[in-house]
Specification:
GO molecular function (chains A, B): molybdopterin synthase activity
Oligomer: homodimer
Family (chains A, B): Belongs to the MoaE family.
Subunit structure (chains A, B): Heterotetramer of 2 MoaD subunits and 2 MoaE subunits. Also stable as homodimer. The enzyme changes between these two forms during catalysis.
CATH architecture of chain A: Alpha-Beta Complex
Region (Disordered) (chains A, B): 134-153
Strand content of chain A: 35-45%
GO biological process, one term (chains A, B): Mo-molybdopterin cofactor biosynthetic process
Order of helices and strands of chain A: EHEEEHEEEHEE
């Protein structure tokens, strides 16, 4: 099961993640693709750098897969997260969840991204036009105040 | 906008659909991939045939895109639906919706698949081990009773 959850410094390929969950008894595959957005609250991002504690991050991704299996026993999940320098529109994370019926695929996929933001040790350094800042990838910050998981340096 | 919505008799390529909605101001892309499932209520499907009234089906897919734009003005949507003979695990439909933030991408994507099942004139012929039957792609049937949109022949 571990091969379904990985951290990579190479560009992520959506099809590879989807292939891992495609199977004869699934009629639905939901994917979530997180990409680097140029503007956040009016601030322009030039590029991002992601860093992860790789072994722990992969373990946590797999743990999320186990949580999904408990809640949606028929679901199969794969998650890949990229690290390193990412340009605008580059893919930071791909989640794929297959289930027999579609409602479960949406719910389990949504659960996965929320849990990634909660428990996976990945940080991003935002390079803005006017400076840079390390924040947790993690819970979206409000009013510029880093949320839980913050790793400002 | 029309080029984002199409019916094809060729295998669908997920990346091509995703590319149409990838853009600098999106941080989230949700995709829904509908695949041919082997078992439905204990009955084994050998393969499926999809037929569409192509011009009308593409028009209806585009209409769904407009509905999404009204509800989620920052969303970009692309939808491809396949017709012809599909084997188990083949992709019947790919929806991709990009939005600045993730919650909207899930909601709009879910909206799209539900609307496809409601308004798009596509029918499938199920080839089971013990026979065949035309049904609407569309609202899942209950207890073997074809739902609205049924086109049994």
């Amino acid at each position: 099961m571990g091969k379904n959850y990985w951290i990579s410094d190479k560009p992520l390929v959506i099809q590879e993640v989807v292939d891992l969950v495609t199977r004869r008894n699934a009629g639905a595959i939901n994917t979530f693709i997180g990409t680097v957005r140029e503007f956040t609250k009016g601030k322009r991002t030039l590029y991002l750098e992601y860093e992860a504690y790789k072994a722990m991050a992969e373990k946590k991704l797999e743990e999320i897969g186990h949580e999904i299996k408990e809640k949606w026993p028929e679901a199969e999940t794969a998650i890949a997260h990229r690290v390193g320098r990412l340009e605008i529109t580059d893919i930071a994370v791909v989640i794929a969840v297959s289930t027999p019926h579609r409602a479960d695929s949406y719910e389990a996929s949504r659960y996965a991204i929320e849990r990634i933001k909660e428990i996976v040790p990945i940080w991003k350094k935002e390079h803005w036009e006017d400076g840079e800042h390390w924040i947790g990838d993690q819970k979206e910050t409000k009013q510029g105040i880093p949320a839980k998981g913050d790793a400002s340096k």
